[in-house]
Amino acid sequence: MSQSLPQPPHGLCFHCLQPLPSDGGYTVNLAGADYSVCCFGCQAVAETINQQNLLHFYQYRDTSNPLQVPLVPEELQQLEAYDDENLQQQFTRQNDGLRSISLSIEGMTCSACAWLIEQHTKRLPGLTQVQVNATTERVQVEWNPQLLQLSDILKAIAELGYRALPFQSVTQEQEFKKRRRYFVTRLGIAGLATMQVMMLAIGLYFGVVSDLDPQLRQFMWWISLFMATPVLLYSAQPFYVSAIRSIQAGRPNMDVPVTVALLSAYGASAYATIINEGEVYFESVAMFTFFLLVGRYFELLARQKAVSAAANLVKLIPAVAHQETSTGHLQSVAVSQLKPGDIVQVLPGATIPVDGELLSEATAVNESILTGESRLVAKHQNELVLAGSLNKTQPIRIRVTATAQQTVLASIIELQDLALSRKPKLARVAERMASKFVVRILMLAAATFLIWTVIDPAEAFWVTLSVLVATCPCALALAAPTAVTGAIHKLNKTGVLLRNADVLQILPEVKTIFVDKTGTLTTGEFVLQQAHYAQPELQPRIDAVTQALERSSNHPLALPLQQLTKHVEDITHIRSEAGMGLSGCWQATDEHTAEVRLGSLRYIQQWHPNYQPVLAEAQVFLASEQVVLAEYAVGDALRSDTQETIATLQQAGLNIVMLTGDNLEFAQRVAAQLGIREVHANCLPADKLAILQAAQEKAPVAMIGDGLNDGPVLAQADVSITFGHAADLARTAADVILLRNQFSAITQFRAITQLARRILRQNITWALVYNIGILPVAMAGFVTPYIAAIGMSASSLIVLLNSLRLYR
């Protein structure tokens, strides 16, 4: 039996310690032995405990009082608790019957860990999506709760030796502090040992020149062995764990040659010390470990900086809200207990805790946490206010529409995590190269050893060791993750959400940008631009007639004409004629009632066949049977920053093409204002798609649209960009979301993307040049192990520092 488990008194169930049935009950095989249990339930729980590697539960339980012995280990009880529906509402999101969650993974060290977790959990029935990000140590999981429980996912990850829990910012901070202490203690021991061993190594080096006494040399070797041993056994532990896991995953990572080099150098030096013959390189073991740990520590700090922004967003939402009771009084309640329909009050200067409908008349809020824009945004009654915004002007009342993971802020954080979990093509290529490079290094190291065994057997081992150390692809493994994480962090700070990391590579290659008109180049809000009156002195009355008629219409052009004046006119018998307009009876004077029409030019020309508009842009006309009373030009106002942005993009060599479903006259008018030369108007969605596909055959293209009626072309474009706001944010399928709703954000997004791709390419180029360049030098025997350690660590630090430029 491989593991001895204490047996309970005879006749009692091994699991629950209750009497066994007369027929002996069931049996369960644990640690190679059969144990008797009273029922199928005990058998199932015991098997689960065995599967989760929790047999210590049986080894250390106190069986003296069976009634006080827990039936399930605390570790399993904690996981089962996450299946509670009320608890899940605090950290899961629901969409089309599926649930999604962000999990923090404890113990993940590299991409091999990520691959192992991803491949293992994919096998679970009911799991629809799993994306693991080794940089942030998080997993995005989506599953069908009808087929799979959250605890099953957590248990599956636990089977691999990792600990997974729902992501919480406080937990993450504690985990980072724990990881920092983990590295700092090992780094401290390696640093102290390196200094001591290096002093001894210098003494030994000068001793060779001055004929050091053999006994003193032997003594210094033993002291060096004593100092290097804790470095090997304790400080270098992270590399061994990572190497073993990567080998188990079938994807050897850079820690494999590191582990081989450390164990080989220490073993050979220890052997030379024991037999008092040969050479020792304890200083290389200590120094190599120290420099590697320095690189890992800086990598950890860079990773913490990258993911802290999203964590800070969560912390800004208050945990307590002031809820109105049915009697109108206020009570303090946890935000997690609020439900849609509840009413909360928010004081000036306080953070809004939920998404909700504004019940007060008006306020101004700061939405910089969501959009990066610090200017105040006016909010009016019945408009949506968002969790995380700052209420700035007056006390307000809000009817709750969403809390916790259902808020827009939560969807922003989810999109950030999604972007971090998706690697661009160049990053995936670099990752595969690093993995293949490890295998080739091990093969070349073996070849080096064989060649040098023939040339100089005494130097064969140390040259091979230098090859393993110098060519370790640490810099290549860090090149892509650090650059991508920095770019996403920078974009998030500027109010740009990236859902697809491939955009970092594709956008700089785009030469044609297609843009929708309404809601993209324009604000999407119609306003009255011009008006002409046949009798100007009657303007208030004419506007009142128009206003009264338009209030019976839901056409977009009617909206700006529904609030023209405070004057009131009595209109009766209002009728609507489809595709034409509205008509009604107007009490023009006490004695005279006139029939009036409001609508298109064609509708008015039924009464006045020869009438030609005074305003060329007029779309809405008001007329009686005798005279055309007014003309109104209603237009969609251009975004304030559109013209300058279009000019900037064109100066950068980009071709801007307008795709719109509006008529050609209006489209050309907007295009002329913006300097857009190519216009496609009167386009149905299928027409837009055909035009975009034709251009796509020549080169990658980008599409900027509102994300609703431009769905097909946004999905087809190589890069799709939309403007994010409230309810549409979580549903959009675009690659890029501009949270500020400003067209000018495109130029900033493009500049950051170009910088990110440049840094990504610089990192990969440098890593390849270093590894390929140092290889023949190391194989030729010109690099000592400790010089190899310095060179390898320096190359990794260069990559890290280059990526940190994105954070400035």
What is the fold's blueprint, element by element?
Layout: E1 26-30, E2 33-37, H1 40-51, H2 56-60, H3 74-81, H4 85-88, E3 92-95, E4 98-106, H5 111-121, E5 127-133, E6 138-143, H6 150-158, E7 163-166, H7 169-209, H8 214-235, H9 237-248, H10 255-275, H11 282-315, E8 320-324, E9 330-334, E10 343-346, E11 355-358, E12 362-366, H12 368-371, E13 376-380, E14 384-385, E15 390-391, E16 396-402, H13 408-421, H14 425-455, H15 457-470, H16 474-493, E17 496-498, H17 503-506, E18 512-515, H18 517-521, E19 522-533, H19 539-550, E20 571-577, E21 581-586, E22 594-599, H20 601-604, E23 620-624, E24 628-638, H21 642-651, E25 655-659, H22 664-674, E26 678-680, H23 685-696, E27 701-705, H24 711-716, E28 719-723, H25 726-729, E29 736-738, H26 745-779, H27 785-803
Parallel strand pairs: 18-25, 18-27, 25-26, 27-28, 28-29
Antiparallel strand pairs: 1-2, 3-4, 4-6, 4-7, 5-6, 8-9, 8-10, 10-16, 11-14, 11-16, 12-13, 12-15, 17-29, 19-24, 20-21, 21-22, 22-23, 23-24
Membrane topology: Multi-pass membrane protein
Protein name: Heavy metal translocating P-type ATPase
Family: Belongs to the cation transport ATPase (P-type) (TC 3.A.3) family. Type IB subfamily.
